[in-house]
């Protein structure tokens, strides 16, 4: 019983450490001529890491979409598979705003009336306000369900879309949208991530139009387009949301995720050389694709260490040590990498000296002062 209690406490503390901190706010809109309620969920690290910028996730139907997304984000960030994000939800259900917010002209299929004002509210009032008040990274994501999902597509119609990534769950299209979206995806020059889905429980007429868009979008061949479609068997219109969210986020952030066993076995270990270059390139891709500059994870250093040892490319430890000194200068990581090189090349005296120097630095990850002393003592005994 005590063990169960201890496990529950650990899980609670872990969840608390990664929980989004949600603020309910009101923004006065001149475009809509009314006040609108929004929720802003800040990452747990927001108050601690003063210079860090975070991707923005804007959720239409905020009342029920924010809790669903926050749950997936807390899980994904715990494992470092998904970056922490600032989540902004627009409440649209208190007075049935979602119907008027998404109003469109039945002939053109474009926003009309309040639907046009709502588009301006997001682009000209809400987003500038959020970007001024919070530390926002370049990557911006929008998501919605049925009518709000279709509405999110309108942002693709601009020459320079406001959002970079789209999570479109069972969209209910206005006239012509299933043809217009693939056309826009083929013409937009900047990188775009586009995810959409449908469920068994959706109306057949709606499903046919969604699949038509999928059929045409798959014909678009551009290196800047990251595209995925899911069809959920046995899911209802509403239950699919809980399937779609992790699928979309894990697809969007596949390049962000730590080195997995699959990536190690298929992409890194078979390389004849260039293991450190692979690591540098991986993080450069994250920065270039998503505008997020981040420290190289300790677990990724360990993966490259393993590849260097496996392939006896011991000289690459020098490059790895330089990288460690750049990102973790006060820690023992750089000295540890150099000591491994000396040890593997049987330069025992240098290895001992470097392990002892590492002892004077700050521990990091599974590297401890005791470990450095033990390493040095083992080498002394082997002489």
Indicate the topology.
Blueprint: H1 2-18, E1 21-29, E2 34-42, E3 54-59, H2 62-78, E4 86-90, H3 97-101, H4 114-133, E5 136-145, H5 147-152, E6 165-169, H6 177-187, E7 192-199, H7 204-217, E8 225-232, H8 240-252, H9 261-268, H10 275-290, H11 298-310, H12 316-327, H13 333-344, H14 348-359, H15 369-382
Parallel strand pairs: 3-4, 3-5, 5-6, 6-7, 7-8
Antiparallel strand pairs: 1-2, 2-4
Task: Describe what is shown at a glance.
The protein is 50% helix and 16% strand. The chain is of the alpha/beta class.
What does this structure look like?
The chain has 383 residues and is α/β, with parallel strands linked by helices. 50% of the residues lie in helices and 16% in strands. An eight-stranded mixed beta sheet has the order 1-2-4-3-5-6-7-8, sandwiched between helices. One of its GO terms (molecular function) is hydrolase activity. This is Alpha/beta hydrolase. It comes from Flavobacterium silvaticum.
């Amino acid at each position: 019983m005590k063990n169960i209690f201890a496990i529950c406490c650990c899980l609670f503390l872990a969840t608390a450490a990664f929980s989004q901190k949600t603020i309910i706010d009101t923004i006065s809109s001149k475009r809509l001529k009314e006040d609108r309620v929004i929720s802003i969920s800040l990452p747990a690290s927001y108050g601690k890491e003063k210079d860090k910028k975070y991707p923005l996730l804007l959720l239409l139907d905020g009342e029920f979409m924010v809790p669903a997304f926050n749950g997936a984000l807390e899980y994904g960030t715990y494992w470092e598979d998904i970056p922490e994000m600032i989540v902004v939800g627009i409440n649209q259900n208190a007075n049935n705003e979602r119907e008027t917010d998404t109003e469109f002209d039945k002939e053109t299929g474009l926003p009309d009336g309040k639907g046009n004002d709502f588009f301006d509210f997001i682009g000209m009032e809400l987003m500038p306000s959020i970007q001024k008040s919070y530390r926002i990274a370049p990557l911006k994501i929008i998501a919605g369900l049925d009518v709000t999902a279709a509405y999110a597509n309108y942002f693709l119609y601009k020459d320079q879309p406001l959002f970079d990534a789209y999570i479109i769950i069972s969209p209910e299209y206005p006239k012509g949208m299933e043809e217009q979206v693939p056309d826009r995806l083929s013409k937009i020059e900047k990188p775009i991530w586009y995810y959409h889905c449908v469920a068994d429980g959706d109306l057949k007429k709606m499903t046919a139009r969604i699949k038509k868009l999928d059929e045409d979008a798959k014909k678009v061949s551009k290196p800047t387009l990251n595209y995925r479609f899911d069809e959920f068997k046995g899911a209802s219109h509403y239950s699919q949301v809980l399937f779609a969210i992790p699928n979309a986020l894990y697809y969007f952030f596949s390049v962000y995720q730590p080195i997995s066993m699959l990536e190690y076995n298929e992409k890194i270990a078979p390389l004849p050389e260039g293991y450190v270059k692979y690591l540098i390139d991986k993080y450069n891709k994250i920065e270039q694709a998503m505008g997020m500059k981040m420290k190289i994870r300790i677990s990724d250093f360990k993966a490259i260490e393993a590849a260097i040892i496996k392939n006896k490319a011991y000289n690459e430890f020098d490059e790895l040590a330089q990288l460690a000194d750049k990102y973790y200068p006060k820690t023992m990581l750089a000295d540890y990498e150099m000591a491994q090189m000396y040890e593997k090349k049987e330069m025992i005296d240098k290895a001992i000296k470097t392990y002892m120097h590492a002892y004077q630095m700050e521990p990091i990850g599974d590297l401890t002062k005791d470990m450095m002393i033990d390493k040095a003592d083992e080498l002394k005994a082997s002489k």
